[in-house]
C-alpha cells in the first residue's frame, strides 16, 4: 500500500513496475542490466482517487499520460534497480500529493482607492517637475 495522504492510499496491485534498460552512457554494465524502472498507473480506472484529484492529476501529468489514461513514469537516475523503484514510487506520490491539494480560490478584482490615485499622480507630477528643471547649461 502506497500512502499518499491520510485520505488517499494506492494499493500495490494498481501500480505496475517493470525493469527496463536505461538509456544513455554507461559502458558494459548498462548494456547487460535492466536497472531503470517503468511505473505504470491507470489514473482513469483507479478507484483509489477521488474525482477532483483525478481531474487535477490529468492536468498535472501532461505528456506522461497516455491516451488510455495510464500515467507512465521512468526512473533511471540510479545504478541500482531498488533505488530506481523507490524513486519512481516517490515521483508518483509527489504527483498525486500535488493533485490532492485544492486549487487556490480565484482572485478578487479590486480597484485602487481615490487617495492612492491622488498619491500616484502627485508623485508623477513631482518627478516630472524634477526632470523638467534639468536641461542644458548655457555658457556665455
- Secondary-structure-derived class: alpha+beta
User: What share of residues are in beta strands?
Assistant: 15-25%
Second CATH tier, the architecture: 2-Layer Sandwich
Give the tally of β-strands.
5
Order of helices and strands: EEEHEHEHH
Q: In angstroms, what separates the terminal alpha carbons? A: 90 Å
Q: Quickly count the helices.
A: 4
On the 0-100 scale, what is the average pLDDT?
Answer: 85
Total domain units:
1
Largest sheet properties? 3 strands, antiparallel
Estimate percent helicity: 25-40%
Uncertain spans, ≥5 residues at pLDDT below 50? none
* CATH topology value: Double Stranded RNA Binding Domain
CA-based shape: elongated
Side by side, the strands of the main sheet go 3-4-5
CATH class reads: Alpha Beta
How much is the radius of gyration in Å?
Answer: 28 Å
